[in-house]
Amino acid sequence: MYLADYHVHSTCSPDGHQTMAQAAEAAVRQGLNELCITDHVDTLYWDDFRPRWDFDWDEARRQFREAQALWGDRITLRLGAELGDAQYGFDRAVHMMDGAPVDFVIGSVHLGGKKFGNMDLYYIEKGDEAYYDSVIDSYLDSVLELARWGQFQVLGHLTLPLRYINEHHGEHMTFRRHMDRVEEVLRTVIPKGVGIECNTNRGNEPLPGPEILRLYRQFMTGVRLLKETDDASREKVYYVDRKALTSDEVVLQSENELLHTPAEQKEQLFRLFESGLLT
User: Fold this and answer.
1) Residue 236 to residue 269: CA distance in whole angstroms
2) What is the reported pTM?
3) What would the pLDDT profile of 36-49 be if each residue is shown by its tens digit?
């Protein structure tokens, strides 16, 4: 199996704790075949949300050359970027990425949107479901704005608010009430050839989960990129073709799954084929 990780941060990121050389060494020891360093390139400063126009590409190049010299004979190394919250300044995003020596770009949103004063999702407060839904809606406004721009290869951790709502506050929220918005995002990025990331979320609930991954695959046409990743662990990158979709991946869901056994759901699917609704 070919193992790769395309979502790793070095000390070139505010939250990075390892140099690129150290990340490469760790990847080799874990048996990875390929590693892409995707440091945060954000249009806002994290401390006070001032507009940001620059990124230290010289330091990134220096660290990458060091990693190549030490470990490049044992692993394929690539330099990428996680382009964060570009929707707050597409001109700044283009400026920072202009001429950047990268092979791969993740587009991601980490803030709660304008309705919540650009609050970092990490600081979502304990609240009721109406509050959580409002944060998710505001977040998805930003995601959709980013998706319409689309100048990146993969949309990162689409359901990120769930990390902080569920893991910090012990909730069990889902995106079930927001699937119309998710569908709009997917129908926006797919024609652009943009993939989605399945972030394994440090061993917790994947971001996004299987329901949204299936939806992406059902909507796509032609060959698309699908990436499973973890901020600090292993990742798989797949190229998948819409023609490879099988009836086993068509999921019939209801609010009460007890209403239909698997055999009854299969029979429903056959009736849909016979009626001509599915071809």
Assistant:
1) 31
2) 0.80
3) 999 999 999 988 88
